[in-house]
Each structure stands twice: as C-alpha cells, then as structure tokens.
Amino acid sequence: MDEAFEYLEEVKPNLGFDLLAEVSDVIELLEDNPYLFQIVDGEKRRAITKRFKYNVFYKIKNQKSKRLYFGYSAWKKK
Hints:
By secondary structure, this protein is of the alpha+beta class. The chain is built from 2 helices and 4 strands. The longest helix has 18 residues, at 15-32. The chain starts with a helix and ends in a 6-residue tail after the last strand.
C-alpha cells in the first residue's frame, strides 16, 4: 500500500490520501459486516474499493478478529 500511496501522491497531491480514506471506509464496512464480501480462496474474502480498484483481502478468525492483506488489481504503475 505504501507504493500505491507514494505513486498517487506523485501523480497528484492528496490522491494518496484519497486512497487511504477509501480503504479505511472499506475496513469500517467489513468490521460492521465481515460476511458482506465474497470468498475468493478458501477462507480468504475480498473487498474492492470503488475508485481505485484496490483489493482488501481478509480472513475472519472470529467476530472480533480479522486478518487483513492489501493488494491492487486494476491500479498499475506506469
């Protein structure tokens, strides 16, 4: 996520912060409803941010504990 943030900040000031805000919104949503997003591999689920197409992968250990992974799909450095 650091690379995406740095790249977006080079493209346009504060664009990296927009990415962080969008990812934060997704995390809040999955904290409220962890079963909302689809299973993509075994127990791993994926939420995708709308604007940046950034993936938030996670596993539900129990209602209070989730393991998060981040990655991008459509966003590519040129």
